[in-house]
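Researcher: Structure prediction, please.
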Amino acid sequence: MSQQKFWNSKFSRDGYLYGQKPNAFLVASSANFNKDYKLLCLGEGEGRNAIFFAKRGYDVTAIDASDIGLEKLRSLATKYNVEVDTNCIDLNHWEPNKKYGTIVASYLHMYKSERATLFNKINSALNTSGFFAGEFFSVSQLNYESGGPKDIDLLYTVEDFENAFPGCEYHKLEEVETILDEGKGHQGKASVIRVIIQKK
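Model: Predicted structure follows.
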């Protein structure tokens, strides 16, 4: 099944699967983000993170494979009178042609074999001094019922990120337990990988 069909099947339900509140870790990470440069949300789904940043004055672009998810994002943008550029594309086919001051992601479902290519794209798309911040389900999430894939190849380890962003400084790279409260899709105790890197 393609990424688009998979996510369209999830996002075609009524309401917002992961709620309308932004990911708490991305909010907490945003103090050092620079509004003078474009911000990119990867695998943004129904738009909760993109709308948060757009409401705070960022120039936001959101990428997702699901046209249904992005349509919901645009509805939220209209509701809050903000603008978000959208790009409906599988991240495996995304070719960055712009530079961004900030790139964010929460819970990307990328197979282990696909990550090195994506991380290289993220690195190349960052401006000097730009940040990449993300929260991802760890392999330990298999022990929890709070959401996320049950395929270990779609879950992450700290080692997946080590040395994956040459020329960048790591401000945070850790596996932690947290409590998720993100719509119907993410509820309860979870094990996640958190990463913040900055391009030198």
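Model: The chain has a mean pLDDT of 96.
Researcher: Thanks, that helps.
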